[in-house]
Automatic annotation (TrEMBL):
Name used for this protein in its record: Insulinase family protein
Biological source species: Nocardioides jishulii
GO MF annotations, alphabetized: metal ion binding; metalloendopeptidase activity
Biased composition regions of type Low complexity, renumbered to the chain: 28-37
Region (Disordered): 1-41
Pfam families listed in its UniProt record: Peptidase_M16, Peptidase_M16_C
Amino acid sequence: MRLRVTHANHRPTGQQDSAGRSAVSSDAQPAPAPQQAGTTETLQTVRDADGQVTSVVRRTLLPGGLRILSEQMAGVRSASVGVWIAVGSRDEEGALHGASHFLEHLLFKGTRERSAMDISVALDEVGGEFNAFTAKEYTCFHARVLDTDMALAVDVIGDMVTNSVITDEDVEAEREVILDEIAMHDDDPDDVVHNLFALQAWGDSPLGRPIAGSVESIESMTREQILDFYETHYRPATMVVTVAGNVDHDAVVRAAEAAFNRNGFLERTGTPVLPTITDAADPVTPGSRTVTRSLEQVNLVLGVRGLTRNDPRRFVLGVLNTALGGGTSSRLFQEVREKRGLAYSVYSFSSHHDVAGLVGVGVACLPAKVEDTLTVVRAELARLAAEGITPEELARGKGQLRGGLVLGLEDSAARMSRLGKAELVYDRLMSIDEVLEAIDAVTLEQVNALAAELFVQPEVLATVGP
C-alpha cells in the first residue's frame, strides 16, 4: 500500500546555498530560500489510504545554527535520538589522523555533571541502548529509549558533546583502548583488505586512511590537539539533532535547547555547515596492493571509480549493484559459488562520499583458487560492460531494493538515522515514496549505460593473505 506524502514546507531540507552548500551538480536546480533561524518547518506529512497521519517530519533551526529534526511515528512506543556532527576522518590532516574517533571515545569519559559511570547508568536504568560511531564524513552519538525517556536521552548526549572535561588521565587511558581497537581491526582480514583498497584508490589522503588512525598518530596525539579539534568542529552549526518515534516536535526542541545550552554553547553564532553536492567523482589511482598474512584464505577486493553520494544515477547504480552481487540470485554468487565452487562468500558493493565513490567486488577464497576467482570476476564485469543486464535481472534488482528500503525503515532508529544523513550529507530529505518511485523509474537502458561506463575503467585491486 502506497502512502500519500504532503510537503508542507517550501524548501527541501539541506538546500541552503547561502549557508555554505556548494551546489555544483550538472543537474542542480535553483535553491529555494533558506529556512530562517528561530523558525520551524514541516518537511513531510505522510497519510495512509484512509487519510490517517502516520508520520510527520518537522525541522527547527536555532539561531546558532543547530538543526533539530523529528519524525513523529504512529504505532510505536520508542524514541530514537541521534546527535550528528559534520566531522569525520576525511577532515583530518597529518598528525590529527584518528582525532575524530579519539574524540568520540573521550566524550564518554565524563562531563562536569556526570562521571563515565553516571553516563552509563542513566541509560541502562531505563533499558535504553546507547552507542556512537565515527565515519569518514560524520560522527554520531545515538540512543534508543522508551518514548517517556526521550528528554533524558537528549540530555545525556547534549551533556556529553557540550560539557565534557577530557582530562589528561582520560586521554592516556583511552589511547590504550584505541590502540587495542586498531590491533583488533588489523587482525580482521576483511577490514585490512578494504582499508588497503581505499589506500590504493585514494592514496595517503584523508579518504584513503583508516578511520581509527594509525598506531603512530594515536601514540603521538596530545590532549591539546584533541581539545583544539573539539573546539573547531563541535559547534552548533556543524550539529544536527534527530529524534524519531512517539515524540512531539515541540517537546524535542525544548529538550534539545535545555541539553545544549550548557556553557553558552547555543550562544555561538553561525549558519549550518552543509556538504558539497556534485556528481563529479574524484579520480582514483589504478593499481594493486598486497599485504602478506598467515591466513587460510586470501581476501580480495577488486573495483573501479564509482559515483558520488548525490549523483542522480545512484538509484541506477543500486539496481546494477544488486544484479551484480547483491544476493544469492546475483551473477557473482551464481558464477563464483554455485557453478564453480570457488568461494563461500562473494558480494559487490558501492561506497559513496561527497566528491568520490567506489564500486567493487569482495571475495575470500583458498590460495589455490585466487587466479580462477579473479578470472571469473573480471569476466563478469567485462560481460556487464559489453552486454548489460537482462529485463529479469532489472526486475529482481528493483524488487530487492524496494523491499530492503521499506523493511529497513520500520523501526525508529532507522528513521532517526535517515533524518540525520539527509540533513548532513544528502541534498534533501526524500520521502519513502519518492525513493520507491526513483527505483521504479530506473530503466534497462540506464543500467546498461552505467555498466558500460564504469566497468571499462582501470581496476583497483587489494589482496590480503598468504
